[in-house]
Design a protein that fits this description.
Radius of gyration: 24 Å
Largest sheet: 3 strands, antiparallel
Helix content: 55-70%
Number of strands: 5
Low-confidence stretches: 294-307
Mean pLDDT: 86
Oligomer: single chain
Distance between the termini: 36 Å
Strand order of the largest sheet: 1-2-3
Number of domains: 2
Strand content: 5-15%
């Protein structure tokens, strides 16, 4: 396999696997809240504080025990959950956004359909993002886009509704054709949301709205240990100014800029694009942990100017 394609394929695999994980968590009772029984399932077991049963059985529950139970079973788990994305930002930047985020994966596929149909990723930009974009098979991709928006959002809506309605109940409703209001609302809500964001919003959502992404962005920006993609200015003379690194960036980042853009999701597409242009092991982009050292920034050459 070509090394320039390996990174791209690996990223697609991680995105697909994580999407499947998110969809299947409620199916196997790994994580879901049953609104009918008002029970939270975690790894197949009902998660509760255990205080209600003790009180109903007439047991004497001390205030110390109640406090410790609430801390251990309620507060600490929530603190751990809320700290996930800040910690990811500190050590990996926005790597989650570029390699795992299911919504980002769907946005990228919508970009791909746009590129094949209109010759550009964005509906609002008139310039071509990729001069090599082929639109000769436009009719086929129009059909694919229609099928995608008709089938994929409702299917995802069914699986996500499983976080609140028992999957067995959902399966019974679907096979019998007798859909409850909750299932209909879940499918409709998710479908409308995905269609609107995929067609009109896409990565603008990632830049300005997504809370997990913004947390990773903020903590990654200030972290001295965060993973980053850097441009090798010491060998800037090798750059052909082909701009492939800019064309493949779905976040609208200028990869060769002197300052790291906070919207970079560490996807590595610029790395693959540069290696494809200059050859294996000659690319000017690479992953690096931590901020650029002061002495390196002083010896770096000026950034290329764009017309």
């Amino acid at each position: 396999m070509d090394s320039t394609a390996r990174l791209h394929i690996l990223r697609r695999i991680t995105q697909i696997l994580f999407l499947l994980l998110i969809l299947l968590l409620p199916v196997f009772d790994i994580l879901r809240y049953d609104t009918a029984t008002k029970e939270l399932f975690i790894f197949g077991k009902v998660w509760s504080l255990g205080l209600r049963d003790a009180i109903s059985d007439g047991q004497i529950v001390s205030s110390t025990r109640v406090a410790l139970t609430i801390i251990m079973k309620a507060i600490i788990p929530w603190v751990i959950i809320l700290s996930i994305f800040p910690l990811l930002g500190v050590f990996f930047g926005r790597l989650f956004c570029g390699w795992l985020c299911p919504e980002g994966f769907l946005f990228e596929f919508a970009d791909y359909l746009n590129l094949k149909i209109f010759g550009r990723r964005s509906l609002y930009r008139t310039s071509h993002n990729d001069p090599a974009a082929e639109t000769s098979g436009r009719g086929l991709y129009i059909i694919l886009a229609i099928l995608f928006y008709i089938i994929v959002p409702p299917v995802i809506g069914i699986f996500l509704t499983g976080y609140f309605i028992a999957p067995a109940t959902i399966w019974k409703e679907i096979t019998t054709g007798n859909l409850s209001f909750g299932l209909k609302a879940g499918i409709a809500g998710v479908s409308i949301y995905l269609v609107i964001t995929s067609i009109f919003v896409r990565h603008l959502f990632c830049k300005y709205v997504c809370a997990p992404g913004l947390m990773q962005m903020l903590f990654g920006w200030f972290s001295s240990r965060s993973l980053r993609i850097e441009f090798d200015r010491a060998n800037i003379s090798r750059c052909t100014d082909c701009r492939r690194c800019e064309q493949v960036c779905f976040m609208g980042v200028m990869p060769r800029a002197t300052q790291k853009n906070i919207n970079c999701v560490n996807c590595g597409e610029c790395i693959s694009a540069c290696e494809k242009e200059l050859g294996r092991d000659k690319g000017l982009f690479s992953f690096r942990r931590g901020k650029k050292k002061e002495n390196e920034s002083k010896t770096s050459q000026p950034v290329l100017r764009h017309p």
